[in-house]
């Protein structure tokens, strides 16, 4: 494992944003960590991320505060609010919390904004280890449009790199494993991304531990950036924030189809949060609720994210989420396909009409994804070695009868079309109705058929007998 890339499979974790917005506290983080360790760690879930404004003592639900009195050290670096995070008092930062999370066998990460706090610039605080000050390194022209906490950094000034170096040194000294850095990609700030990557590399070398970098938000990030992104990050968002709306999931089909060919071990295009379970407690959007996504819509999201090899970061408060939610997240197929699939691709995408000659009789899209089963990058043998995975999706609002349109050979390959194959439902045992999916026919004429529920998915593995 030591010689593998830091993120050898797409991460599986929890992020506080969907449930707590800017206001999560230490007790809530630890409650989710303990629940994850007890109920989900064995299924691959191992990371917790504290989202934005953990350094704002006036943080509130449903928005950001202008001129917030951020808690900073003498060099302008952000410190946790000790009221919400009592173990951070007396300059301890997230060190004590990280230690508790690590004792559970889990990882801890935090959210950060690009740039330098406005308060540090207003006070003209020194940049650690240099003769420069915050005013020297700030870029007042490139400021986040939606969060008022920071100015950008002028990467043409030598003190700008020193600022990020000092910030990352502090985070590494706390034992953090993961950083979600925002306002990096919309617009695409390549100089800032590269500077942050260099700072992480220095901190990793000094403290002897890896820190994974996740870039946000996504916007319309172009695949032409992929080589640069692989050089500088482990994850990068490919969309804006995703919430518990079918329309948000539907938009990700095209994005993941575009990015799937570029997924490589250690470097992942990220389709964003999994808005399952108890969300909206004190979040940016919506009221306190269990996810509004129907059970079949949740299965669609999980199958699509896994077939597209996107990271999975669930947003609901785990201890107060429904049993059905936890059962879906505990499905071993999630980690299996994320870790052990290759050649992941969309193979079919067709608009379906009740009557082909009537434009106003459109029903939805029938979409098929396929992948080959592969051993995991950590050496774990694949449960379906020599086999294949497939997901059949339906975006319409009524059930869809597949019929004989998907030949088995389109998934297993022409050279294997006459072999004997068995089908396994990867959602077997999950909440909801049993899947109606099967192989019919003989020899090369065999088809995969069944019924897909509205906004639903059939997710299967195919193995030689």
From TrEMBL:
InterPro entries linked to this entry: Aldolase_TIM (IPR013785), GH (IPR017853), Glyco_hydro_27 (IPR002241)
Gene Ontology biological process terms, A to Z: carbohydrate metabolic process
EC number(s) per entry: 3.2.1.22
Swiss-Prot/TrEMBL catalytic activity: Hydrolysis of terminal, non-reducing alpha-D-galactose residues in alpha-D-galactosides, including galactose oligosaccharides, galactomannans and galactolipids
Signal peptide limits: none
Transmembrane segments: none
MF terms (GO), sorted A to Z: alpha-galactosidase activity
Enzyme class, spelled out: hydrolase
Assigned keywords, A-Z: Disulfide bond, Glycosidase, Hydrolase
Assigned protein family: Belongs to the glycosyl hydrolase 27 family.
Protein name: Alpha-galactosidase
